[in-house]
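[Meeting: bench + compute handoff]

Bench side (C.D.) handed over the final construct sequence. Compute side (W.E.) agreed to return the predicted structure before the next meeting so the bench team could plan truncations. Sequence as handed over:
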Amino acid sequence: MKRLRYSSRRHPSYKIYGYDGKKNIKGWWLRDPPGGCFTRSDPINLSDRGWIQVFCCLLFCWPCTCVPCFLSCNYDGYQFPNYDEDEQYSYNIPVATVLHNIKIDFFSYIYNILNVLEKNI
């Protein structure tokens, strides 16, 4: 289970996820590194030294490749911003336009494939 804690200031050494630098931030959600010796596998948040250990295990002893993923020392803490609610919903995404364009592109793609197959048969 991931335990998050809230802070009004950014942590100086944690990685930052999901921040584009353009919006107002109320605070930061921090995920501290796991404690203890072993933890659940989470390859997305595996640190660089963890990936190096996975690669070395892959080269020298491939059955042990997954072992570094379960060691808690291979995970660092990370943080992501908590935006102002007014700005979080201030942009509009034209979903219908996007879906309409995908639909047209998909059917034109299928139509072109069928024409090529018809010419080859």
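W.E. noted at the follow-up: The helical segments are 48-60, 85-88, 95-120. C.D. will use this when planning the next construct.
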